[in-house]
Amino acid sequence: MYIGDTITAIATPPGRGGIGVIRLSGDGSRWLTETVFRPTRAGAWMSHVLRHGWLCDASGRELDESLAVWMKSPHSYTGEDVVELQCHGSPAVLRHVVERLLAAGARLAEPGEFTERAFLNGRLDLAQAEAVADLIDARGAQAVAIAAAQLHGGLSRELQALRDELIDVKALLEVQIDFSEEEVEIDPTELSVMVVKAVAGLDALVASYAQGRRVREGIRVTIVGKPNVGKSSLLNALLGEERAIVTEIAGTTRDVIEEGIEIGGVPVVLSDTAGLRAATADEVERLGMERTGMAMSEAEVLLVVVDGSRALADEDAAVLRASAERCRVLVVNKSDLPRGLAAAALEPFAAGAATVQVSAKRGVGLEALREQIAATFRDDLPEAGPAHAVLTSLRQRDALAKASEALHTALDGLAAGQPPDIVAVAVQDGLDRIGEVTGTVSNEDVLDRVFSRFCLGK
């Protein structure tokens, strides 16, 4: 990437839409815009003021009505001169305009290059830049709240406070090093207290990654039960679409089917599985049941489905026993049919699990089921807001875990009475690891890994 040039890209998703946006960033943004944009009224450009006009081809023929806004450096997303052209979302018009801008001297932006320029120009730190990608990818209200808090600098401020504490520790160690001949000594207990406080803050952030990952990637909820109890019908009902094939033939589902939905503001990866039975001569069905077992082991919540129109069978009991130690919701399906399952028959297997009556075919009881699914993980969700930083990136988690390890080394050195210069090396390692998260310490490989997640035009 070369920062001195002017880049351009379509900023809206591929395909037709009501609005299309073309973005430029760099010193040449305004004059390049003038090669494709003809304002309705003559006059000077004013920063952050929309101008009405037309996008034109090379012969001057008008292609589409447009609005253009110029944002003067440094008061823009990237910190450079930025122009955004807004027109109707015609892929042909957008592509033609970008091609004209490239011919006039612009360069096609790489994925994430606008945000990378914002980072390099000091508009965002690296944690905030990652939050931009998280916000774009957010699949639920909780994920949006966490990403917005990080974009506002919640994580960065918490890490800066930890860095300030460790810089104080490093400064006291440096005093001992610089004035060793004058026998200046700092109480190691005082230093240890300061380092322990920093370690506690780091460990709390590292622990938050488990919650942040669930909110970002989704909670795995798997539907299990014997064949023909309505598992696929339940999947379709929760999704609101015919995703799985449903027939009266037992064993129709042969593989695990996964789809994403949102429940309680959190993304959920919902899986339908092959029915579990004692034995089968069908090799494909047997392999399907093996995959069901793997899906059960990976699930965070199980929906154990039984047929409420029939008496509890041995195969039902086997599934209920196999899931007894897991987080689960018991789903009694086919409530639209005459009751055949006695409540007393299910009680020995319930073990405190919630039971919900539904009719997947009629759509009855689905809201109660969604609420019960949300209740299984609601207490484990992180608080989202400026005062509650949550890690969502494995890169961040690993860097802070290594920072904690370095500070534990420093604590061991203080306890053992090691020279201050040795302890200072460990403290500096911790500082550098924290700096990797916000980008105060970074390298090209880290930046490439972070910004490769972004879409073109962002």
Features:
alpha/beta; six-stranded mixed beta sheet; Gyrase A, domain 2; Rossmann fold; seven-stranded mixed beta sheet; 3 domains; flat; Four Helix Bundle (Hemerythrin (Met), subunit A); 15 helices; 45% helix; 458 residues
How does this model look, in words?
There is one protein chain. This protein has 458 residues and is an alpha/beta fold. The chain has three domains: 7-123, Gyrase A, domain 2; 130-214 and 387-439, Four Helix Bundle (Hemerythrin (Met), subunit A) (Up-down Bundle); 218-361, Rossmann fold (3-Layer(aba) Sandwich). Helix content is 45%, strand content 17%. It has 15 helices and 13 strands. It has helices at 29-33, 91-104, 113-120, 126-137, 141-151, 154-178, 188-217, 231-239, 283-298, 314-322, 343-350, 366-377, 394-415, 420-438, 444-451; strands at residues 7-10, 17-25, 37-39, 50-56, 62-71, 82-89, 107-108, 219-224, 257-263, 266-272, 301-307, 328-333, 354-357. A seven-stranded mixed β-sheet has the order 3-4-5-6-2-1-7. The protein has a six-stranded mixed β-sheet with strand order 9-10-8-11-12-13, with helices on both faces. A hairpin with a 5-residue loop joins β4 and β5 (62-71). α4 (126-137) runs antiparallel to α5, α6 (154-178) runs antiparallel to α14 (420-438) and α13 (394-415) packs antiparallel against α14. The radius of gyration is 29 Å and the shape is flat. It starts with 6 loop residues before the first strand and ends in a 7-residue tail after the last helix.
